[in-house]
TrEMBL record, chains A, B, C, D:
SUPFAM superfamilies noted in UniProt: Glyceraldehyde-3-phosphate dehydrogenase-like, C-terminal domain, NAD(P)-binding Rossmann-fold domains
Keyword Oxidoreductase: yes
The name this protein goes by in its record: Gfo/Idh/MocA family oxidoreductase
Domain Gfo/Idh/MocA-like oxidoreductase N-terminal: 6-130
Pfam families hit by this protein: GFO_IDH_MocA, GFO_IDH_MocA_C3
Domain of life the protein comes from: Bacteria
GFO/IDH/MocA-like oxidoreductase domain segment(s): 141-282
Protein keywords: Oxidoreductase
Length: 381, 381, 381, 381
């Protein structure tokens, strides 16, 4: 284990903050790291909240103004886990302050911001990364290996779903994820962005899209700050509850995508299937250790999807975590990602997915939004 | 068991002819029918082939010219299982000859023909039906019952896949299903039409569509009639290998559809999921007895998809076939459908799906074709 | 299709009678048979019931006394689907009358009767068969092929379950299946006998057993013939509700078996897994077209159970029924079995499973009963 | 988060040591603990190995003699993760030294040692616990809750499997797990002990057993310490490769158990099903977040196993880890267990499973061993 360290400052501390914090703590246990992360400081506007969170999650200090945090000399890298509309401003300021930056997805609320972020990253020469953690599931990494080795041959189809159901209750109050100004979009940026990243990682770049974005419940109760139980006013939902789109990849494959928060019974159904000329694969986040693999060249009569639990020594991270058949959970996807971030800082090479990937992703998201308005196919720039 | 009969003449005798023939034979064993089908005659151009088929499948006589068949006085109803481009001519002639008509799907190769068929049906006053057999899986019938009773509430999503893989080999020769003139389209009319029927049956009519149709392998070997082993020429594939489209239902639900013959490992993957405000259902033809049902009002902590094998006395056909947990197979979907056809003839009421449904279906298929060309949303008339 | 026929007389006509009748009707449609079965006559004590059943199921005539049936000159083979305690008397009489005999399982209610039945069969020189239909699921036949070819290597484990739940209601009335005199045993003879047959078919003969038989509900309402709604008396259940036993096969493998009617939610859960030195297989009647296959020599990293739908041309019956991915149901297991019976008659060679298999099966059943009493291991003779 | 601490000394540091160490590190992140564990010291005979392990896993110091460790004043509790034959000596010494003790399973290599351990625990008045971690899977805890609330009613069946395949290669060398002196037994103590604990936890105490223990490969290569590649000698395997047994619970339920290292394709298949008069449940370690639940009182026609992902706020630990549908992995079972250990120390109340549970477990294990020799049913004392 190296003695060298990288001092992290994290901005935001809710659900994603918890997932990132856990990863920083857990990483040195499993991996030999070139740089050991030091949980230096977090920031949040609510002084009490951020203080408690720092203690609970193991951060050495805290700030109630993120601007102070990024100016601190004792911090090398900034991790942004705020609502989406703050990403651009914080990331650019952090890069300008000479910090490496890890940013939650989606990169921003529009393409313009994403471009400015990438430009700032290039100008700074610092390491930049976007947090599409599902790439780092061992099964997805193994899928990538199979595809890279040509085991699926030419790809014909990508078919992705991200189905959730936490917003189906019409009495569920309006929060930042349902306001365009703060989130950019609804299920689209939150869920479809993950699928787009997986599709780009595994299949390649997307040339054009057509699709639709739907809002099933157009108004929701506004939480009354004084008396949250008393709903007196309704607020407009100006983001999508669901998006569905079809894409053409640059390599000729076609893709279908659907993201929704209105698919009852699907708590966190992030799934894809890829069909190639020599084989197919399937993955489902709710069974994240498993990759289903079909190989066309299997002996006739013995052809079928194989149920492969990616915990063997031949699989990515197979010797790092536990043992064959000993499953890992959701949180490990962040370990894989942040390890790449640390490796990138150590070697001064930008890891993937970078802000460039984030921009590409945002361009696909925005092309779908445009298509939803123009009602026709839209090129991804 | 009634003494009354309906005498059937079937035109065509390949795979679908086998499935229909089996159903005619099997129906009286399971059901008390108002009219017992008599397998009177089949027709086919190849005299030897049709003779052998008649003997093998139990038809009393055969013809090598379908025009003769529909003129025979000893035939009450015509069952059409030919390639698609013949449906219109045969159906119209049969209706004009005063026969009831059951026609395989898709109803025709274009909307114009479908309209002529429906007009002829209306003019004739005879019973007309299109063979979308999957409606008659007990699990799908049970799904319909749940939806009709409001158990799913308002429907938000229909998500359908029909994935096959039998055409992935580029050396697979050109046959009628790959020629537009004979089949109208490829995976689209063959597979998507089934999904459209299920979606219309369960969710309702479709208002508009956007989508694409792709041909992955543009040329295939032409079988040499003299020496089929020697491939000397290639022929153009002018139909789609895959189609993907998004729809808006008239009731506000959105739907996604994908039909392909290039999804390796999916031999016959006809699947759908429907999400409503009170619950969700899933069905998969490869496990056709099972309906997965999620009910939002289930006790908290005990919510999850239930795996229901639809073989109980509470399920459609539950007391007709075997016993709880004793699965039925593919062939039974035809029994359910043809029983409706016979009931329709007995009661002079047109059963569903009728030619009107076939026309609606064709209109959706054609709207997708138009969208694939115009690259924008297209209304379904 | 051959012109030669074999004329069948069936004794009994309830659930199993329906399954057998359907198979006789359905066989000529799918198979080229050396002998075509003619549904000549059925018998049953209830004149009205047997008359209706004959008409409904397509039998040409009926008798109310099985003794008359077996004496008829126009009958070549007897099919016994009565309660278990009648098997021996009927089978022996039928063999003595020069008929071929197909008998439902279990062969008898005790080993002594089974021995007399086998002796009568040998003496008669006629074809004899026991109806263990699950052997003839395409997936089970394919499993047999894999094992015969050595694809699993030396077998270590057989693990069988037959779980049902139809008898869990304590108010469910006493019927013949719960009376030792008529059924011999409960879940044991009814369900475990099927597993024993599958185990013997796939793994080999059983050397010794240890086990237990349990009755969870010791008394049940006696149906009042006059007023079935009024339960005035309770009757003793003198058979098992469940049996569980461990076996050693002659080849050194060990086996575990559990049969029960008290496994809620398992309507018809007949499942097994076999582990050998080179691979493993799994089968489940509730998904009867599928064989899960694990091959130890698969490439490292790509090892996992393959989900194989046994409907390909490489699979048993693959070209007989429908097409890849088009599942068959429960009823087809009887077609495969009765076809063997007909082949046996045509070739004068006794097919398997024969009465000799039925006797071996009965010996295992009885050894478990003895073990349940003696509370120690018992050799299978 | 409390300021109070409990200082841990761990003896052994291989696979289980890694799992325990991770839990100590991870616990304070997720839980508000009454006592915070301090990773004070580990011991191991290999000075280099233990030094590296201490650094890697985060232990403050290390010893090469466990006797020194348990005498250290700066240690409050001892965690034993050594091979089985050392458990008794270490645990007793630690208890005598006034330490709380957490011991890996099985408690010992025989009942006699287990009794001495329990006696020492009682005499010491210290907290004692055995590490059956699978009890602490959220889904298993939820199963316990359902059973405790009577949701399954009277229990009829427990059916447990623990299937692995890591020892199937005959060239796999002899190690301590295959030597009776060091491990007590093979698959039996290693795997069956886990099932016995789950069965006792969920169903209740076991009255009597009958079973068998098998060794499929009787001799294995002895690793040559000098040149491990050169196998010159074979050593006898004197433990079981597999055990299978049937039990009667004191409450009248029956249970079947099978543990094996020879079930190809089952990397870590720890599964059970429980059937009661009102419902059934199923669990599988390879899908550890899911509990399948069948409720007999569900509406007719809608009955089926529900697939419940136990990550909701209504589930045990539901608010502690991530969010609905965000799965946890194997390692979390240790968090739940060690948290109980810490709670026990904080409250001076012995948590379950205690050494008393370990002794009961050992008594069942030994009764099976005796039955395997005597070939008859054996009472559990």
């Amino acid at each position: 284990m190296g003695d060298k360290q990288v001092r992290i400052g994290m901005i935001g501390y809710k659900f994603m903050g918890k997932a990132h914090s856990h990863a920083y703590r857990d990483l040195p246990f499993f991996f030999d790291l070139p740089l050991v992360p030091v949980m230096q400081a977090i920031s949040g506007r609510d002084e009490d909240g951020v203080h408690t969170a720092a203690q609970k999650m193991g951060w050495a200090s805290h700030e109630s103004d993120w601007r102070k945090l990024i100016q601190r000399d004792d911090i090398d890298a900034i991790d942004i886990v705020t609502p989406n509309h703050l990403h651009a401003e914080i990331a650019i300021a952090a890069l300008e302050a000479g910090k490496h930056v890890l940013c939650e997805k989606p990169l921003s609320v529009n393409v313009e911001d994403a471009k400015r972020m990438l430009a700032a990253a290039h100008k700074s020469g610092k390491v930049h990364m976007i947090c599409h953690n599902y790439r780092f599931s061992p099964a997805v990494q193994f899928a990538k290996k199979l595809i890279r080795e040509g085991r699926l041959g030419r790809i014909y189809h990508f078919r992705g779903l991200y189905l959730q159901d936490w917003l189906m209750d019409p009495d569920s109050p309006l929060e930042w994820r349902m306001r365009k100004e703060q989130s950019g979009s609804g299920a689209h940026g939150d869920l479809a962005s993950h699928m787009i990243d997986l599709a780009r990682f595994l299949v390649g770049d997307i040339a054009e899209v057509v699709g639709t974005m739907e809002t099933f419940i157009g108004a929701r109760p506004l939480p009354d700050q004084e008396a949250p139980e008393e709903i007196t006013e309704m607020g407009e939902v100006d983001v999508d509850d669901a998006s569905a789109f079809i894409v053409k990849f640059k390599n000729g494959a076609i893709g279908t995508f659907e993201a929704t928060r209105f698919a009852g019974g699907n708590r966190n159904g992030n799934r894809f299937e890829i069909n190639g000329e020599r084989g197919s694969i399937r993955w489902d986040l709710e069974s994240l250790n498993v990759l289903e693999v079909y190989l066309k060249d299997d002996e006739a009569g013995l052809q079928g999807f194989r149920n492969i639990t990616c915990t063997e020594s031949e699989h990515p991270y197979g010797n790092v975590y536990w043992a064959p058949g000993h499953n890992i959970g959701y949180e490990h996807t962040f370990l894989g990602l942040i390890r790449e971030f640390l490796n990138g800082i150590a070697t001064s090479r930008c890891p993937q997915p970078s802000f460039a990937d984030g921009l590409q992703n945002q361009m696909v998201l925005e092309a779908v939004e445009k298509s939803s308005q123009s009602r026709q196919w839209v090129s991804v720039e």
